[in-house]
Amino acid sequence: xxxxxxxxxxxxxxxxxxxxxxxxxxxxxxxxxxxxxxxxxxxxxxxxxxxxxxxxxxxxxxxxxxxxxxxxxxxxxxxxxxxxxxxxxxxx
Length: 92
What we know:
two-stranded antiparallel ribbon; 2 strands; alpha+beta
């Protein structure tokens, strides 16, 4: 099951994450990219202006509430050292 989440499923989760932070401008304060690994598995990279500690709980809750089993995903949220480089990577 883990390998079968398509773009539609990931976009659904991205939309739910954005809704969890209604005070954020979805066009200015967020950047999400769905990327496919060499094995063909989709995953999401995201960038936000919010503090990474504030993001983790809400992102984890959104995924949990979607019904996806905890063994099916990993959530990694951390501070970005160089925003310019992170944005450049996401736009590649």
